[in-house]
């Protein structure tokens, strides 16, 4: 559908939240707790963190929670009965999500909706509306423009807000979901905005590499063990990068039983863990951290784009900021680009 | 709204348990819901997620042939949490099964050809499915040769079936055990599978080779087959990467551009050669 | 820094070691671990107030060990970690050369681990750090409030295990949380799973934590989980007059029996 431009006045932000609350929507927005900014349920616009480059953790848990029930069961004597999932996901608005993160929602969708349709994910997805917020500043870890995004990209968002100098927002209504939400908030979005030069309001993120060339290069250096070992020597094999990543989708399945009832749960997992691929026999196809680091990059920059025709990394920079050992993904990528064949 | 939970297993009843070897059992499973059983179809090479609620799921191939309707069989060795729990089950108990998943052996394309099956240890079950499938349609194929090895005589699975196959005039069966694994009355070969294969030197003319075994066996078998004149396109194997979801979502079995669970588990040697060595 | 690089050059060119684990420049305003194997790489070694990561964790990493004999640039936290690891039979003199670094960047040469122990003992009991003050503050809160505080903090944990991976003392090849027959600790990062994980982690580090705070720094969500292990370190200190990483001897109070122990349940 054609993008429609409107203006959201700063004084309309409060009523916007009130009306969404009243309509029974759960609102997730970036909130500041200590030094951290996380997407959490909020009820008022006052709770939202202002003036930050990137949230510490992404909002992906709104569609792909760190732990979620796949099915539950109840046992009586020797008989075990599966129980139907009770509740449907609540209609949810994610407010203030960065364009890179909104693009990551698309990447997640590609994984869960290609071939087998994963209804655990899709049921949540259907109930989600994304109100993006363009970036007016970036930092050294950002590289969205190298992976197909930009600080004002509309990809993935249903509505994209861009802050104006006077505190108001340029609102781009991008999808039917966005339209429906605007229609339900009668009058909060005012006409106007068609003459605004959006580009001039955005942060500048200089492209550092070309994603297509990066894929080719990565495929070419696949067997360069020295490179992968050198890059991963300081990696300690934790899951911080994968768990703050907005597009990482790997998961584990764990069963729990307490007394006569239990659940099968889906939990985030990471290809950086040695246990991820370990066979019961003790054989491990990726037994070194170098192989696991290579897998992480290959999955994001080669296999993923080939399979889903979407970047597997959106350049949000979270993994680099979060890494306890300063594994800077952009630095590593640029080093790979420089590597002689 | 999507209709069905992808991860919901069928509830299966264990009709029969066979102790195949130390710690190795075969379960014959029937659907508790007749309707589900009637609608269930699979092809040789496919696998499933077998589970006990509260313990977890474990991945094995379907070891019975699609030509035998009304039930499925699985053979597993007790090793981890789930297989240990499965091993404690008794006939008449129920358990979970989701599947069938993955691609299949292109058995229809093999009509008029000879088949050479090479298996090692606990990897005979994935092959048993396709062996029975071929034997039940025996007239479609020329020579059928089976080479099967295990560490010791005791570790050979499907002992009764091996006996039957050995007696059949239309099957050439070679069994072998690793040096030191033989018993005084062992009549088969002694030696590792690749060595025994090289000695037997089956013809590669108009022949498909199917290889299943531990990674180390596969590694040493491919060169021997190449030496015997098999082209990479005519050698098939199944990869056994660790899996959880079975449907290309959880990422665990990702090797190169493939998910072993969805794009495999059946691959030709031509495909395997192109893969990163992460299997 | 000059003294550090000079010493590092000496042992690399002299062939005493194959690799020096130290700090180098990282992302803007950050320092990171580097593994210097050539004279050119030695020239990148730095030490300043940004160099906080506890490098001792790499002494246990198979991929680093595979490079050959190691040297490590060791601030006080690293020195204490080395002593603790050695006391747990994880390191011997044959494994590494220790290059001590003083807070102002000076170099202390250690002929062997015994010398590290003597140095640490001579330096006296470590000063109480800021974290101890935070712990005392939390301790002052009523029980309910304290419980509430930790519930809130731990509810954000996603079990990425950065705390475990960053800790030099968490060197087990198979962690309790990964043992599943039986499943001692729930694997998922739900309420119970998180609570049990952090209690277990703290308990397994009791009497072993050298209070470097690396687990807390490593946490991508900024959870102050180092306070849990440090609280237990404080308890051990007050109950047994003991601090980890001060000696080469295995004397961990929780795994060592002494006839004059206060408790008599074991007698």
Describe the structure.
The complex is a heterotrimer of chains A (341), B (279) and C (267). Chain A is built from 10 helices and 12 strands. With 341 residues, chain A is an alpha+beta fold. Chain A folds into 2 domains: 4-201, no CATH class; 211-338, no CATH class. In chain A, the strands form 2 sheets. An 8-stranded mixed sheet of chain A has the order 3-2-6-7-8-9-1-10. In chain A, strands 5-4-12-11 form a 4-stranded antiparallel sheet, with no helix packed on it. In chain A, a hairpin with a 5-residue loop joins strand 8 (159-163) and strand 9. In chain A, helix 5 (211-220) crosses helix 8 (289-308) and helix 6 packs across helix 8. The model of chain A has no long low-confidence stretch (mean pLDDT 94). Chain B has a 7-stranded mixed sheet with strand order 10-9-8-7-11-12-15, with helices on both faces. In chain B, strand 8 (144-150), helix 4 and strand 9 form a beta-alpha-beta unit. In chain B, helix 5 (193-200) runs parallel beside helix 6. The model of chain B has no long low-confidence stretch (mean pLDDT 94). By secondary structure, chain C is an alpha/beta fold. In chain C, strands 2-1-3-4-5 form a 5-stranded mixed sheet. In chain C, strand 3, helix 4 and strand 4 (96-101) form a beta-alpha-beta unit. Chain C starts with a helix and ends in a 27-residue tail after the last helix. The chains are: A alpha+beta (341), B alpha/beta (279), C alpha/beta (267). Chains A and B meet through strand 4, strand 5, helix 3, strand 11 and helix 8 of A and strand 13 of B.
């Amino acid at each position: 559908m054609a993008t429609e431009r409107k203006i959201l006045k700063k004084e309309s932000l409060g009523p916007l939240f009130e009306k969404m609350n009243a309509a029974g929507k759960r609102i997730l927005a970036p909130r500041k707790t200590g030094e951290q900014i996380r997407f959490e349920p909020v009820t008022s616009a006052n709770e939202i963190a202002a003036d930050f480059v990137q949230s510490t953790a992404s909002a992906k848990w709104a569609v792909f929670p760190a732990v979620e029930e796949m099915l539950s069961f109840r046992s009586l004597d020797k008989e075990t009965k599966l129980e139907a999932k009770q509740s449907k996901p609540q209609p949810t608005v994610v407010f203030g999500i960065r364009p890179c993160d909104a693009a990551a929602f698309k990447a997640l969708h590609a994984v869960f909706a290609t071939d087998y349709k994963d209804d655990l994910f899709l049921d949540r997805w259907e109930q989600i509306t994304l109100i993006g917020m363009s970036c007016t500043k970036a930092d050294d870890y950002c590289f969205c423009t190298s992976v197909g995004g930009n600080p004002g990209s509309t990809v993935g968002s249903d509505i994209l807000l861009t802050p104006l100098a006077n505190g108001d927002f340029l609102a781009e209504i991008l999808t039917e979901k966005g339209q429906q939400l605007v229609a339900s908030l009668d009058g909060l979005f005012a006409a106007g905005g068609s003459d605004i030069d959006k580009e001039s309001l955005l942060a500048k993120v200089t492209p550092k590499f070309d994603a297509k060339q990066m894929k080719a290069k990565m495929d070419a250096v696949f067997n360069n063990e020295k490179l992968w070992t050198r890059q991963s020597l300081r990696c300690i094999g934790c899951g911080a990068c994968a768990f703050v990543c907005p597009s990482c989708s790997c998961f584990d399945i764990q069963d729990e039983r307490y007394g006569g009832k239990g659940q099968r749960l889906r939990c985030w997992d990471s290809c950086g863990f040695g246990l991820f691929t370990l066979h019961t026999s003790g054989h491990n196809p990726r037994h070194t951290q170098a192989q696991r680091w290579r897998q992480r990059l290959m999955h994001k920059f080669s296999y993923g784009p080939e399979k889903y025709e979407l970047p597997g990394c959106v350049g949000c920079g979270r993994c680099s900021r979060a890494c306890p050992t300063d594994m800077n993904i952009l630095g590593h990528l640029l080093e790979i680009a420089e590597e002689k064949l | 709204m999507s209709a069905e939970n992808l991860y919901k297993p069928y509830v299966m009843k264990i009709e029969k348990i066979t102790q195949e070897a130390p710690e190795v059992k075969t379960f014959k499973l029937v659907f508790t819901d007749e309707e589900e059983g009637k609608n269930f179809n699979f092809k040789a090479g496919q696998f499933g997620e077998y589970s006990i609620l509260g313990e977890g799921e474990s991945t094995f191939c379907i070891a019975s042939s699609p030509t035998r309707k009304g039930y499925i069989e699985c053979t597993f060795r007790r090793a981890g949490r789930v297989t240990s729990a499965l091993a404690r089950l008794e006939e008449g108990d129920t358990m979970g099964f989701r599947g069938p998943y993955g691609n299949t052996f292109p058995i229809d394309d093999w009509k008029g050809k000879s088949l050479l099956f090479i298996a090692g240890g606990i990897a005979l079950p994935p092959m048993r499915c396709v062996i029975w499938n071929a034997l039940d349609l025996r007239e479609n194929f020329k020579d059928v040769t089976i080479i099967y090895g295990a560490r010791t005589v005791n570790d050979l699975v499907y002992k009764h079936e091996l006996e039957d196959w050995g007696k059949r005039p239309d099957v050439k069966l070679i069994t072998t055990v690793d040096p030191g694994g033989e018993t005084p009355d062992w009549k088969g070969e002694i030696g590792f599978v690749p060595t025994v294969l090289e000695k037997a030197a089956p013809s590669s003319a108009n022949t498909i080779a199917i290889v299943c075994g531990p990674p180390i066996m596969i590694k040493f078998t491919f060169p021997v087959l190449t030496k015997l004149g098999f082209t990479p396109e005519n050698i098939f194997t199944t990869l056994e990467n660790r899996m959880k979801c079975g449907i290309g979502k959880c990422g665990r079995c990702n090797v190169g551009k493939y998910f072993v669970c969805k794009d495999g588990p059946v691959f030709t040697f031509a495909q395997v050669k192109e893969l990163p060595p992460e299997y | 820094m000059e003294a550090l690089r000079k010493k590092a050059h000496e042992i690399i060119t002299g062939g005493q070691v194959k690799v020096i684990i130290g700090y180098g420049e990282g992302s803007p305003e950050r320092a990171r671990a580097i593994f210097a194997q050539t004279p050119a790489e030695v020239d990148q070694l730095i030490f300043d107030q940004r160099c906080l990561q506890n490098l001792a964790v790499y002494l246990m990493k198979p991929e680093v060990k595979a490079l050959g004999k190691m040297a490590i640039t060791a601030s006080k936290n690293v020195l204490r970690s080395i002593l603790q690891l050695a006391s747990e039979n994880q390191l011997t003199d044959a494994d590494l050369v220790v290059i001590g670094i003083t807070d102002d960047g000076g170099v202390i040469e250690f002929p062997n681990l015994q010398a590290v122990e003597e140095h640490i003992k001579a330096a006296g009991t470590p000063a109480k750090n800021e974290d101890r003050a935070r712990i005392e503050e939390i301790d002052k809160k009523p029980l309910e409030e304290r419980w509430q505080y930790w519930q809130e903090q731990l509810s954000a944990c996603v079990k990425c295990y950065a705390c475990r991976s960053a800790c030099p003392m968490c060197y087990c090849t198979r962690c309790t949380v990964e043992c599943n027959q039986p499943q001692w600790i729930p694997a998922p990062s739900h309420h119970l799973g998180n609570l049990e994980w952090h209690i277990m982690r703290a308990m397994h580090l009791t009497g072993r934590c050298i209070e470097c705070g690396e687990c807390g720094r490593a946490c991508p969500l900024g959870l102050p989980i180092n306070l849990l292990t440090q609280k237990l370190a404080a308890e051990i200190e007050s109950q047994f007059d003991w601090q980890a990483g001060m000696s080469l001897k295995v004397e961990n109070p929780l795994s060592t029996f002494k006839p004059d122990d206060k408790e008599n349940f074991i007698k």
